[in-house]
Amino acid sequence: MPSFTDAALQVNGITLSYREWPGEKGPVLCLPSLTGHKGTFDSLARRLAPEFHLYALDLRGRGDSDKPAEGYGFAYHARDLLGFADALGWETFTLIGHSFGATAGVYLASIRPGRVAALVLIDGGADPKEEVLQAMYPAIRHLEKTYPDPATYLAAMKKVPYYQPWNPALERYLLEDLQTLPDGRLRSKSSPQAIRRDLDMHFMYSMCVHFPTLQCPTLFIRPQNGLLGDKAHILDEKEAAAFVAWIPNCWRVDLPGVNHYTMILDDPPLVAGPIRAFLEAGSGE
């Protein structure tokens, strides 16, 4: 099993935490979802390293990275990603993004096409409908909830419909997101204020204008299931087809029997096969 190390870099006046799996080809930078953290990619990295050299990043406001009051929206995240790449001496790199991380990847690859060699979009990269964005605000409340112990927290998470079927990789991911407060209670590491600021700024962007400008090979992976079984897809079929058609050099893979979360938070994750094939075809060089 490939080993990893956790480390941090000073970028744009803040500390960004990351996880690294050494490998021969790459580098490959992995970006998690809106409230996700670097542990999202543990199972995937075990299937790609040591052939590929992977890094998974906690975006500002999440995980073990700093949580400044300001500096949110895709332009700020892109600046952080470029600063991170520069600090490690990368001229070019491949991006793998899940959900919000995929959208951040699209934005960066569009404005700095010379830096992104290839792009993998895991059920993300496009603008959700306005009503979907609005519906995300109540979900921030779970970030503010506290729990007396891990067992109580996991019991609550097991009731969430889109965390089904439950599996050990999902459990490890959720437990890693916990921080202990001064009173001993537990809460998510993600900053509710940071997530709210990113959602506020999301309305100021229009990703569709960026799709035709993407110059790198792109892989879009969509789950067959929505967040509620056959309902609540991040992108419905019509949106997904248009999304792929707008990107000049894009392949699409649909994965059966998984949803937005279980497609990557499982062991092995179903996304591993198509991502490995895409990278081995030369897109991760």
Structure report:
It is a single chain. By secondary structure, this protein is α/β, with parallel strands linked by helices. The protein has one domain: Rossmann fold, CATH 3.40.50.1820. The chain contains 10 helices and 10 strands. It has helices spanning 42-48, 74-87, 100-111, 130-136, 141-144, 150-157, 168-176, 192-202, 237-246, 272-283, and strands at residues 5-11, 14-21, 25-31, 52-57, 93-98, 116-122, 178-180, 186-188, 218-223, 250-255. The strands form 2 sheets. An 8-stranded mixed beta sheet has the order 1-2-4-3-5-6-9-10, with helices on both faces. Helix 9 links the parallel strand 9 and strand 10. It starts with a strand and ends with a helix. 44% of the residues are buried.
Keyword list:
single chain, 285 residues, alpha/beta, Rossmann fold, two-stranded antiparallel sheet, 10 helices, 33% helix
Produce the secondary structure layout.
Elements: E1 5-11, E2 14-21, E3 25-31, H1 42-48, E4 52-57, H2 74-87, E5 93-98, H3 100-111, E6 116-122, H4 130-136, H5 141-144, H6 150-157, H7 168-176, E7 178-180, E8 186-188, H8 192-202, E9 218-223, H9 237-246, E10 250-255, H10 272-283
Helix pairs in contact: 2-3
Query: How many strand segments?
Result: 10
In round numbers, the mean pLDDT is: 93
Largest sheet: 8 strands, mixed
Query: Considering the protein shown, what is the CATH homologous superfamily?
Result: Alpha/Beta hydrolase fold, catalytic domain
> CATH first level: which class?
Alpha Beta
Taken as a percent bin, the fraction of beta residues is 15-25%
Provide the low-confidence segments as ranges. none
**Number of DSSP helices?**
10
Helix content: 25-40%
How would the global form be characterised? Answer: globular
SSE string, helix = H, strand = E?
EEEHEHEHEHHHHEEHEHEH
Radius of gyration: 17 Å
Q: Provide the number of structural domains.
A: 1
